[in-house]
Amino acid sequence: LVFCCLFLEMEKLVACPYERPNALCRLICFPWAGGGTSQLAQWGKLFSSSTEVSSVRLPGRESRLKEPFPKDMTAIVNEITNALLKELQEKPFAFFGHSFGSYISFAVALHLKEKYGLEPIHLFVSGAHAPNSEEFLHIKSIPLNDIKDEDLLTYIQFLGGTPPELMQYEDIKKHLIHTFKEDIRVLQTFSFETAERKSPFSCDITCFNGSEDDPRDSEAWHDLTSGDISFYKLPGGHFYLLEPSNEIFLTKHITKCIENAGL
C-alpha cells in the first residue's frame, strides 16, 4: 500500500514521457514561474539511453489544476522529497532548473543533503541569481499586492516563454497571472544564509544564462559548493533555452557533465 501511494504521488508530481528504467542517471528538471512540464519533459528524447529525464509538476497547473497552490517553499520541498526520495536513493541524479525552477532545485538539493546526506552529481542552474546574493533579496522585496495584473502580464510577455496565441484567451491569461504571482510568493518565503557555514555542496555547478537577459549575480554560487563552477552565456533573452540550437547545446553539455561524473 505504501509503495502504491508513493507511485501515485510520483505520477502526480513528475512527468516522464521517455522512461528509461535502465538509465545510469536521472535528470530532474524544475520549470520556471508559471510554467508546466511540457517543454523540459520533452528533453528526454534528446538524451542518450544513459539518462532518464523528468520534469516536476507543481500544484495549480496541468493535471493538478484544481489543487491549491503551495503556501511556501517548505511545502514544495517536502512534497518533492517525499515523492522522489526512494528513486533518488536508487541511482545517481542531477538537477536542472530554470529561473524560479533553479531556486526550487537548490532548496530541494539542500534539504536532501542536510536531512538524508544525498547530493546531486551536478546542479545545473539557468537564468537565476545565486540564492545567497543581494539580487536575490530584491526578488524577496517585490510588493506583489501592489502590482497591477496588466503590468505583470506586460512583464510576462516581455520575458517571453508563453506562446502568444494563448494570450488571446482571457481565462488562460488570468490563470497565468495568478500562477506567476503564487510562484513568486513562494520564492519570497525561501531564505538561505551562508554565514558561519561551509559550502553546503561538493558537487559541480553549471550556470547558464541568456546573453540578452538581465545580468545575473552568478558569482555568489562559488560560495555554495567546494566543487567546480562554470558559466555559459547562450544567445537570447530570459527564455534562450527554448531556441532549438540552445536546447541542443544544453542537452549535449549536460550529457557531457553527467558522463564526466564517472558513473
From TrEMBL:
Listed GO biological process terms: medium-chain fatty acid biosynthetic process
InterPro entries: AB_hydrolase_fold, TEII, Thioesterase
GO molecular function, one term: fatty acyl-[ACP] hydrolase activity
Pfam families: Thioesterase (PF00975)
Domain (Thioesterase): residue spans on this chain: 26-247
Enzyme class: hydrolase
Catalysis: reaction(s): (9Z)-octadecenoyl-[ACP] + H2O = (9Z)-octadecenoate + holo-[ACP] + H(+)
Keywords recorded for this protein, A-Z: Fatty acid biosynthesis, Fatty acid metabolism, Hydrolase, Lipid biosynthesis, Lipid metabolism
Top-level taxon of origin: Eukaryota
EC number(s) per entry: 3.1.2.14
Keyword DNA damage: no
Record-stated family: Belongs to the thioesterase family.
Protein known as: S-acyl fatty acid synthase thioesterase, medium chain
Species in which this protein is naturally found: Columbina picui (Picui ground-dove)
